[in-house]
Design goal:
The chain is an alpha/beta fold and 98 residues long. The chain has one domain (3-92). It has helices at 3-15, 29-38, 58-61, 82-92, and strands spanning 20-25, 41-47, 68-70. The chain has a 3-stranded parallel beta sheet, covered by helices on one side. The chain starts with a helix and ends in a 6-residue tail after the last helix.
Length: 98
């Protein structure tokens, strides 16, 4: 059911030349396996078992540790404070010089 969407995400990652480490927000073992097998990503960390809207969850997975974050099938489920979740994703990403 979701295979087409994950294939599209992989094509997007490849099109923009993303490689390196990925934080898959609210992903699963299956999405981890798909992203690692089908993309140029070297490592995929699945961020789960937290409140994506309310918790300071990035410190559990590595602030500033990731080259890209995948946030698929998440935002439409948020109702309390979506901006908090976006802030946490921003904290997860490596700083880019220049």
């Amino acid at each position: 059911m979701h295979a087409g969407r994950f294939a599209y995400i992989v094509r997007c990652l490849d099109a923009i030349g993303v490689s390196g480490s990925c934080l898959d927000v609210a992903g699963t073992a299956m999405t981890k396996m798909l992203f690692e097998a089908m993309s140029r990503l070297s490592a995929v960390t699945v961020a789960d078992d937290f409140d994506v809207e309310m918790d300071d969850w990035v410190d559990r997975f590595g602030a500033g540790a990731f080259d890209v974050a995948v946030y698929s099938e998440v935002i439409e489920h948020l109702s309390a404070d979506p901006s908090k979740s976006i802030h946490e994703i921003n904290r997860s990403l490596k700083m880019v010089d220049g």
